[in-house]
Structure formats: structure tokens, C-alpha cells
Amino acid sequence: MTNINSFNRRDFMRLAGVAGAAAVLAPNFAFEAAKTRRHQIGATGILWGPPEPGLKDIAALGFVGYETFGNVIESWDKTKGGLGPLLEKYQTPLISSFCSGDVRDPAKRSRDIESLKRYSKLVKGLGGKIIVYCADGGRRDYDYKAYKQNIVDSMNDYAKAITDEGLICALHPHTGTPIETQEEIDWVMNAVDTKYMRFAPDIGQIQKGGGDPVKVVKDYLSLVEHMHLKDFAGQDQLKNGYQGYCALGEGQVNLTAILDMMEKKKKLGGMIMYEQDGPNRNRPALREATVTKDYLVKLGYKFEPKTIAEAATPPAAAQ
Prior knowledge:
- This protein is of the alpha/beta class and about 325 residues long.
- It has a single domain (about 1-5, about 40-300), classed as TIM Barrel (Alpha-Beta Barrel), CATH 3.20.20.
- It has 11 helices and 14 strands.
- The chain has helices spanning about 10-15, 50-60, 70-80, 85-90, 110-125, 150-165, 180-190, 205-210, 215-220, 255-260, 285-300; strands at about 1-5, 25, 35, 40-45, 65-70, 95-100, 130-135, 170, 195-200, 225-230, 230, 245, 270-275, 305.
- An 8-stranded parallel beta sheet has the order 9-8-7-6-5-4-13-10. It has a two-stranded parallel sheet with strand order 1-14. Strands 2-3 form a two-stranded antiparallel ribbon.
- Strand 6, helix 5 and strand 7 form a beta-alpha-beta unit.
- The radius of gyration is 19 Å and the shape is globular.
């Protein structure tokens, strides 16, 4: 086990630059032969909300990277002296940031380009590498065919603005947004300029949106630079108040098929990020993340927990 306080700034910046480069040896598992896993696993902060509780647990569990929203990074920069000291305290580098830009209203494009540039500068300054771009504009009375030209033009402009700041821009399909269904994913990924716009699928969102995440990842694997690794328990679980998402291994997504495909990628611009949109009402965030970690360990992924006095002690996984 590594003591966070034993790291110095040089160690931290070196860690921030390796975004998922280690290969590890997997233990035997009931449905999976032992194999070497090429990638490491990070975590987004949405399950916890505020950055510090999430970073404490992420460090204690041994996830190797962090993602949060662009507006969160900007808020910390304006009011708390930046997120950098907190990332360094928990020795968990920022890999990516989730940001959006409107694709339906051309009048909003200049505004959103400027905000994406601001977020990109902040992310780059913290050592981050990728903007996870989500199309904005809602779905009420929506048919992508009526907005085709503006969708393509705006996405190309957004992606180029981010690329010009030295980061990778990767499209993130999401339920409730203009790019949700598999048809919409297929259309836009074949319409945008992939020199600038890469791909960051959220496999749980794709499942919830009625698509086949295995096929989507297979079809666009060459463009995948980042991933939200999410499981979906099904429409009958939406009543739990947390959008029907669950700890990895407890839902319907064929995670093993997708993770095996990801092994074909020698490297990613970003990282495979565990994400869960809100905890189960009966299990707090740390317990949910622990269930996920235990599942991934059985698949052969390696975690190196970091310990400091403030870090939470992971509980035993729920049965």
C-alpha cells in the first residue's frame, strides 16, 4: 500500500502523465480466463457530488484518475484557489472534464465556444488530457434530421476549439440530450470531422437509451479515447430515484465483452472511468464504489489504494 504523503510533486506529475498505461495480471474468475489487463480504471466524481468526499474514497479504493464537470473546476478556480491542491493531497490526477455545448441554437455557439476554451485551459493547467463533450439543447420536439447542419457545424467548431487548446475532444452520447439513440450516434459519428471529434461512449447511457453498447463500441473502437464504464439495472429500476444505474456487475450491460474489446486499444487519450449516476438508496457512495472495485478486481484490474489520515476505510462489499 502506498502512503500518499510519501509522494512529491514530481511523482504526482509523472503519475498524471501515465493515464492508464500499466498492464496487470488477472486472477482466475468464473467466467473469465486469467489475462493481462492493459488499462487502469479511474472514477468520475458524480456519485459523490463535491470533490473532496469523492477524491477521499477514490484514493482509498485505488482508482487511478478523476473526472469532474468543467463548471466545478471553474468554480474552484474562482473561489477556492483551484482544484490542484486537493488533487495533489489525494494523489489522484485529473484526467478529464465533462462539458457541453448547444447544438440546436446557432446563436449560442459563440458563447459555448468561449466557455469550452475556458474549461480547456483550466483542465490543461491541472494536467488533464480530455474534454468529454456532451451535446446540449434538449430533446423536446426534437428530430436530429431537422438540425443536421447546425449539429455538425457546431460540433466541429467545439471540437476544434478544444483541440486548439491542446486537449482531446470526445463525444459523449447521453440520454435526454440531442445525441442519445444508436441511430443518432451512428449518424453523427459519420458526419463530424473525426480529426477533431473523437468518441467517449457511456455504455450505461447507451443501454438505457435503447442501443447496443457492445456494437457501438465495436463499430467506433478506433475513435474511442475515453469511456464512462457504467451499468444499467433496467427500466423497472428507475423507481429507485437514481435513473436506474447500479454498481458494475449488477446490471444488464455486457461489461466483459466491452472491456475485452478495449484491450485492443494500446493506449487511450483519456481513461476508462467508472461512473454511477447517484447511489442506490440503500447503499452509500463508498459502498457502491467498493462493490464496483471488487467486481473489476475479479476481472483482472489492479488497484493501489492510497492511505492518509483523512482517507475513508473501504467497507466490505455488500452481499
